[in-house]
């Protein structure tokens, strides 16, 4: 017995020593008056208060902030026999101590605390407080939480990227849809008139008109193919307009011609009221023609057989107004606000119902907007027809210079009738191109305007011709075998002026991207002519190059 | 053992007083208004407990468990389903992002909440019976309901009855359901019901005097 109790006493003493010296927690015991009885080494180390300074003193008096923070109650409850838990998340800490390490922004050591009653003889004789430093754990948990949040954010951003990609894909689809739409428009006229020509039932005047219309539309289509990249600008709203003074009456007539076969086929009566006083406006002739086309094409498409389409051009105050009205299917009130809305059109159900009012109208609005004009639509409802009204600002100055667009080329011997175009008489032009067809076409056009032409099939030939013929202007293809146009121009520019080093030069290329144009101009050409060559443009460029020596 | 309607009402009212204290303590602690719904009270035999609770806690159960000893003795548990436990700690610690799991800090918060609630109820019983009960340190367990009931009743043949109190915490426009389960010996339950009857009789006198 004695041996056992001695052992027990020794063990108890060892436990108390362990609690005091070694325990990795703060351990504080008090009597039932809350006077401190035990204050272990951990507490000394972390509070800086020596056991000898606190033992025998009242815990609450030693740490009055326990009352402020209403934590003293837990000791009262403990004295009633309850065990109390103080979590770090709700209290932070019991007794303020400095952070040892890994605080990660905590000013005070974060603590998890248990306050237990100590009982003896069936009553509470004191309290035991165990304080654990959880600062590092809490900080780690915070980091883990942050990681989880970061991952969640990453997932969200991936989702966003995916939807962005889908959007880009949809834009691409829109782009393709736009292109095919644009290409089909002039094709309709070509097909229609070609069909009538094949039937051979047209009188002479109409044959001429057919050929003219086909030519004009083919030309427009060529333009469209060359301008594929411009179409992307329509979508991104960055279309560049080639603004000149144009005659709206001429444009409307051209558009009417292109849809006349389709209208005739459906027995639709085309009524025109074109006020000659409507006068010129400032704009891009091709784009305006595209606008009127779109409206007329829609009108024909949505007007039943033997219906009626009215086209009116008039001047109202400072505006030119183009009104296209039809007796077609009309537009429902619900859909009216979305007629020009591109994305609304992308909606599957609306596309199905209003298919023909698709991309064309959104392009129309953008083009009209770019011209500083306005487009509106009225419809009394479904089955009651629709009226589209375009107003464009009127330009007071009437230009007597006829537009490039108004050139009406004929065939054969009458190949060119360049009314109003500058004369090239007295100019000697050196044309360099490896393709004989292009060379001869250019030569033909230039000769027609009175210019003398020297032809070369390669860069080497051209350098000889430059020495030999002393031309005034150089027109050179860029893509040639052996030596390209860039190489040619750099060789020429390195020549002294008296040997032709400053000859004004224009480049021919099939690619019309902005960076190509930049490279062309940087390499020493002054002008850039896209292929296929437009006769009028060629002559204009040559005329304007005349007398403009190259200055590096 | 079955409680009469009067006994059930009296017990519910007593527990409601303890809940009001718990709500006040939690409100003060968290800075949010915390209300515990008026409790529904029932007595089950321990073997019926699984059936009674299974519907509420199909998956893992978070339980805060405190053993109490003295003239009345038994096990006191606060039961929450896992999602409810996570939600409750989020609400109490002002966590705006819903947490996916209970980290150590959240477990401590739950333990403290259970501690407050269990102490309030058992303290109320102690006062009512005018006895002093002692408590074990509260422990948080995450386990299935079967495991929980097994561990609470295993090898304790005299622990025959369970007082089950159903409530819900109302915090920040959210509601988290919970069960308070107090497993008692026959003797302890008898003693408790006697005291509840006596208290109820006193209340009745008081009412009659109004």
Summarize the structure.
The complex is a heterodimer of chains A (552) and B (210). Chain A is an alpha/beta fold.
Walk me through the structure.
The complex is a heterodimer of chains A (552) and B (210). Chain A has 552 residues and is of the alpha/beta class. Chain A is built from 20 helices and 17 strands. In chain A, α8 packs across α11 (248-265), α11 (248-265) packs parallel to α12 (285-302) and α17 (459-469) runs parallel beside α18 (485-493). Chain B is built from 6 helices and 8 strands. Chain B has helices spanning 5-30, 46-54, 82-92, 104-129, 145-153, 186-209, and strands spanning 34-36, 40-45, 60-69, 74-81, 134-135, 139-144, 159-171, 174-185. In chain B, strands 1, 2, 3, 4, 5, 6, 7 and 8 form an 8-stranded antiparallel beta sheet that branches. Chain A binds chain B through residues 70, 77, 80-90, 112, 114, 116-117, 119, 122-123, 134, 137-138, 141, 144-145, 148-149, and chain B through 28-30, 66, 89, 92-93, 97, 99-100, 103-106, 108-109, 111-112, 115, 119, 123, 126, 132-138.
Explain the layout of strands and helices.
The complex is a heterodimer of chains A (552) and B (210).
Chain A: H1 2-22, E1 26-31, E2 36-39, H2 41-47, H3 51-54, H4 59-62, H5 65-68, H6 72-79, E3 84-86, H7 88-91, E4 111-120, E5 123-133, H8 135-199, H9 204-226, H10 228-236, E6 244-247, H11 248-265, E7 269-274, E8 280-283, H12 285-302, E9 308-316, E10 319-326, H13 342-346, H14 348-354, H15 359-370, E11 374-378, E12 386-393, E13 428-432, H16 436-448, E14 452-456, H17 459-469, E15 473-477, H18 485-493, E16 505-509, H19 514-523, E17 527-530, H20 535-545
Parallel strand pairs in A: 7-9, 13-14, 13-15, 15-16, 16-17
Antiparallel strand pairs in A: 1-2, 1-5, 3-4, 4-5, 6-8, 9-10, 10-12, 11-12
Chain B: H1 5-30, E1 34-36, E2 40-45, H2 46-54, E3 60-69, E4 74-81, H3 82-92, H4 104-129, E5 134-135, E6 139-144, H5 145-153, E7 159-171, E8 174-185, H6 186-209
